[in-house]
Amino acid sequence: MAAAAPKIKLYTNHGCPWAHRAHIALSELQLPFEEEIIDLSVPRTPEYLKINPRGLVPSLDFNGEILTESAIVANFLADAFPSHLVQASNVPGGALARARIAFFVDTFISKVNTSFFKALFAKTDSEVDSFIKEYVDAVIKEIEPLLENTAPFFNGSDKLTQAEVLTGSFIIRLFTLPKYGILPERILDDLSVKAPNFYRWGQAVSKHPSVTGIYDEENIAARTKDRLAKLRAA
Predict the structure, then answer these.
(1) CA dist list (Å): 82 to 23, 29, 64, 79, 99
(2) What's the pLDDT tens digit per position in 66-92?
């Protein structure tokens, strides 16, 4: 008798790039799940705080067990349902491949991604320029060398890997928000010239159906503009 399908419920918000990670994983793994949208613009309900006392998204209910924090949720799903996303650690080369993905994601989040959000919500044009330069320089130094063998995805893969699951929600924002004037388009011009491996990889990631799936580009752009206007007016 086949094992019963797991009961999966995702507490999420489609505008949150961290929750977006879980959606990319679920899409790639083709797992059915129930969804509950958490409104992040108001205080969390007592019911949700019982599920996740931190009040953050995503939270995953997997057969009655609650998991929180986006990387933990996405990595759990990849481990629970072996696939093209990441090799098992006990197969030849698997542990090394996992280590390379972990290093790439850690480098992107810790060395690069912070500058993007600094640029996104900077109060002055000069601050924007400074943080854009900081972002591009970090990509050139830290990320570009790690993407030499993309095909078009990480480490020579022709399918998304866990590297894209954990970074794709940020990459799609990088490649879409400049067209709305939220960031200067020169950030992409600079990357295309100075970090061509990253640029080609980012283009492929930002167009992949599992990454675009829940991404309401116009709505996110409008909300980001509104938030930025309020920040600059303060």
Answers:
(1) 17, 9, 21, 6, 17
(2) 999 999 999 999 999 999 999 999 999
